[in-house]
Design brief:
- The complex is a heterodimer.
- By secondary structure, chain A is an alpha/beta fold.
- Chain A is built from six helices and 16 strands.
- Chain A is 29% helix and 33% strand.
- Chain A has a seven-stranded parallel beta sheet with strand order 9-13-8-1-6-7-14, sandwiched between helices. A three-stranded antiparallel beta sheet of chain A has the order 10-11-12.
- In chain A, helix 2 packs antiparallel against helix 5 and helix 3 packs across helix 4.
- By secondary structure, chain B is α/β, with parallel strands linked by helices.
- Chain B has two domains: 162 residues, Rossmann fold; 119 residues, Rossmann fold.
- Chain B is 26% helix and 29% strand.
- A seven-stranded parallel beta sheet of chain B has the order 7-11-6-1-4-5-12, with helices on both faces. A five-stranded parallel beta sheet of chain B has the order 15-14-16-17-18.
- The chains are: A alpha/beta, B alpha/beta.
- At the A-B interface, helix 3, helix 4, strand 9, strand 11 and strand 12 of A face helix 3, helix 4, strand 7, strand 9 and strand 10 of B.
- Strand 16 of chain A pairs parallel with strand 18 of chain B.
- The structure holds flavin-adenine dinucleotide.
- Flavin-adenine dinucleotide binds next to helix 6, helix 7, strand 17 and helix 8 of chain B.
- The site of flavin-adenine dinucleotide has 28 residues of chain B, from helix 6, helix 7, strand 17 and helix 8.
Chain lengths: 245, 310
């Protein structure tokens, strides 16, 4: 019987246009979804449960608005949903500290998360949490097989590497060849009724604070050409102007 | 005074040239960095010694560094690194390592930095649709995107001290599965040529492959190509749910430039787009845009490159 945890995060829909209001992004009009890589983590957690038995708990950190991502995870099939209540923006040290304290209290065997969150793209949470727990970790997994230990495949220079990963461990998940299951009607009904277990944990002060947001620097308009013959000139420019070949 | 520390980027057991960019980034934080070279053989550190601008080099020698294990590497590097701000490359492996070292020291990590201004660090967020600037008020570990900072000039001869170190490995590599093709992976390449649905058929990727071979480039693909054609593996996919790449040159062929594709490649130094639709969004991001079918443009590109490279 395994006690399986999956970390999920709510992020702006990856199709959404991001706009600024002053020097901060304004997400008020943007639809929020589960970060795409977290879907792979949820799928892996459910496969782990099917292989070894046990229960899956989805955890997120955020305010009540983040309950939606937990309900989404519940609809897909997790057993329990936990929100660590926080309305401030936490730096990686603060975030991982609160996660580590909750995971510790749950006697978990394994934690799955997305390889990075689609908003920050950082990918720090999985390995950082593992270090704080003193656990093994593997990031960017493209395939996991479940046994006494995990067998995890990740990209490595020149190909892929298969790792033997003793439990407890944290694995961050990439897509690989995975097909993720979608919520069914029963799952959606259960999710509606499901209660979020809200926990509060003291976070250390953040030493990294957001100063401002901005739009990416506009790229100077490029050169444009009509017709395939222009490829010859472009090849020359790549060598003589851009110096990249 | 606390030091600035660079963790040399190690690829296949050798110091990668990106390390010279890390030295420049570390200097932007205000001091000559100490460079730590994780290695099994101290001779590896020679590869860093000719990069100028470092105050000293520590060859951190340990069997742990034979294969990557996040826990073992973090412990072995932490043991030899002085306190201070640590700079590493924003490669998948080093981002993982950076997060572990930061957690080990109880400090924060800031990933994918593209600009350093005093203690203000800027990174792309929302897949590059916006930028975020944060202020550091303590030690931290940062990773820096490749091909953003200038490389520190060569010609240095920084002194190397060898320090033995160790750490407990948590995982073990069972096997390496080499790629069937000898071609580079998109995550490792400095030049990438990618094909999208506009290639019409996976068989037409041979035209991209032959240009890739001429340039020493990797071949990438859009998600539409990967999802539509079984012979195009997900490992080639660039974008939001594929790989994030920062090559010097990215050539997009028959790719429309959807926001999720841009997410994976928009920070490429130079972008070339070949697309038959003049209104394709990819052209807004291209340094060189060619409105043409690939059937017209690729043979010309191939023959010009072949004669240039000959
Ligand atoms: C959550 C999510 C994640 C996603 N992740 C990714 C990702 O990681 N990577 C990714 O790429 N996409 C991703 N997508 C999909 C993305 O939205 C687009 O659907 C995809 O990028 C389109 O691929 P394409 O440009 O190859 O195809 P299309 O959009 O169909 O474009 C084909 C292009 O080829 C051109 N063309 C046609 N014939 C020719 C010819 N003979 N010569 C030259 N040009 C020609 C057309 O003008 C057109 O611009 C994601 C989507 C979602 C919702």
């Amino acid at each position: 019987m395994s006690n399986i945890i999956v970390l999920v995060k709510q992020v702006p829909d990856t199709n959404a246009r991001i706009v600024l209001s002053g020097d901060r992004v304004d997400l008020s009009a943007v639809k929020k979804v589960m970060s795409p890589y977290d879907e792979f983590a949820v799928e892996t957690a459910l496969q782990h449960r099917e292989a070894n038995g046990g229960e899956v708990t989805a955890i997120t950190v955020g305010d009540a608005g983040a309950d939606k991502v937990l309900k989404d995870a519940k609809a897909i099939g997790v057993d329990h949903i936990v929100r660590i209540d926080s309305s401030e923006s936490l730096d990686s040290n603060a975030l991982q500290t609160v996660l580590a304290s909750v995971v510790k209290s749950m006697n978990a065997n394994v934690v799955y998360c997305g390889k990075s969150a689609a908003d920050t793209g950082a990918g720090s949470t999985g390995p950082g949490l593992a270090e704080r727990l003193g656990w093994a970790s593997v990031s960017n997994s493209i395939s996991v097989s479940f046994g006494e230990q995990l067998s995890v495949i990740t990209p490595s220079a020149g190909g892929n590497a298969r790792y033997n990963v003793p439990l407890p461990a944290v694995v961050s998940c990439d897509k690989g060849d995975m097909k993720v299951r979608k919520p069914n009607v029963k799952g959606i009904m259960q999710a509606k009724r499901a209660k979020v277990d809200v926990q509060t944990v003291d976070a250390p002060a953040s030493t990294v604070s957001v100063v401002s947001h901005s739009m990416p620097p506009a790229k100077p308009a490029g050169k444009s050409y009509e017709g395939g013959a222009a490829a010859a000139e472009v090849a020359q420019l790549l060598r003589d102007e851009a110096n990249v070949i | 005074m606390s030091e600035t520390i660079v963790i040399a980027e190690i690829v296949k057991g050798a110091v990668h040239s990106t390390t010279a960019e890390l030295i420049t980034a570390a200097q932007a934080l205000g001091s000559q960095p100490v460079v730590i070279v994780p290695c099994t053989d101290a001779g590896t550190a020679d590869g860093a010694s000719e990069m100028s601008g470092a105050s000293r080099i520590i060859a951190a020698k340990s069997d742990v560094f034979a294969n990557y294990d996040a826990a073992g590497w973090a412990a072995a590097i932490d043991a030899v690194a002085p306190s201070g701000v640590i700079v590493a490359s924003a490669s998948p492996q080093s981002k993982d390592l950076a997060a572990r070292i930061a957690a080990r020291r109880g400090i924060s990590v800031v990933q994918d930095v593209v600009k350093i201004d005093g203690h203000n660090l800027t990174s792309p967020i929302y897949s590059g649709k916006a930028m975020q600037t944060v202020a550091l008020s303590g030690d931290a570990v940062l990773t820096v995107r490749p091909n953003v900072f200038d490389a520190a000039p060569s010609g240095g001869s920084t002194e190397i001290s060898v320090v033995d170190t160790t750490g407990d490995m948590a995982t073990a590599v069972q096997e390496f599965m080499a790629r069937a093709s000898s071609r580079l992976d998109v995550a490792e390449a400095n030049i990438i040529i990618s094909g999208g649905r506009g290639m019409g058929s996976p068989d037409n990727f041979v035209h991209l492959e032959s240009i890739a071979d001429t340039l020493g480039a990797a071949v990438g693909a859009s998600r539409a190509a990967v999802d539509t054609w079984e012979s195009i593996p997900h490992s080639m996919q660039v974008g939001q749910t594929g790989k994030t790449v920062n090559p010097n040159l990215y050539i997009a062929v028959g790719i429309s430039g959807a926001i999720q594709h841009l997410a994976g490649m928009r920070s490429s130094k130079y972008i070339v787009a070949i697309n038959k639709d003049a209104d394709a969004p990819i052209f807004q991001h291209a340094d060189y845009g060619i409105v043409a079918t690939w059937e017209e443009a690729l043979p010309v590109l191939q023959s010009t490159l072949s004669s240039m490279m000959a």
